[in-house]
Amino acid sequence: AISTALMHMRIVPASYLAIGFALAASNSFNAIGKPMPGMIISLTRTILVYAPLAWLLSSIFGLVGIFAAACAANVIAGAVGLLWYRVIFAQLR
Predict the structure, then answer these.
(1) What is the pTM of this model?
(2) What is each CA distance from 38 to 8, 25, 59, 66, 89, in whole angstroms?
(3) Which of 28, 43, 67, 75 is the most exposed place for a label (fewest CB within 10 A)?
(4) How far apart are CA 69 and CA 72, in angstroms?
(5) Torsion, Cα of 23, 25, 31, 34 (10° steps)
(6) What sign has the CA pseudo-torsion 28, 41, 11, 9?
(7) 10-45 burial string, b = 16+ CB within 10 Å, else e?
(8) Which of 76, 83, 17, 15 is CA-nearest to residue 45?
(9) What is the pLDDT of residues 40-62, one digit of tens each?
């Protein structure tokens, strides 16, 4: 169990800044009365990116693949959230 936690702590934290962007963007959308983009970012991260990637990478790399999929999903969600935030808030100006 400790080795699994250590493996997780070596891989996933690299994406914490990115998921922070996704969460901040999602909360910003909610604050301006546009909850749909935040929900789409969250569902895209979980259903379209993480689940298939975790399935694929776990069959190749085992547990490391699951953690790598989480990291990749966080980075993709962060990039989408940041870009979408810039587009929506540019329109509000």
Answers:
(1) 0.90
(2) 26, 7, 30, 24, 14
(3) 43
(4) 5
(5) -110
(6) positive
(7) ebbeebeebbebbbebbebbeeeeeeebbebbeebb
(8) 76
(9) 999 999 999 999 999 999 999 99
The encoded tokens of residue 54 equal 């975790």
Q: Are 53 and 72 in contact (CB under 8 A)?
A: yes
Q: Where does the pLDDT of residue 92 fall: very low under 50, low under 70, confident under 90, or very high at 90 and above?
A: confident
Q: Please count the other Cβ atoms lying within 10 Å of the Cβ belonging to residue 88.
A: 15
CA 17 to chain centre: 10
Are the CB atoms for 26 and 42 separated by under 8 Å? Answer: yes
CB 54 within 8 A of CB 11: no
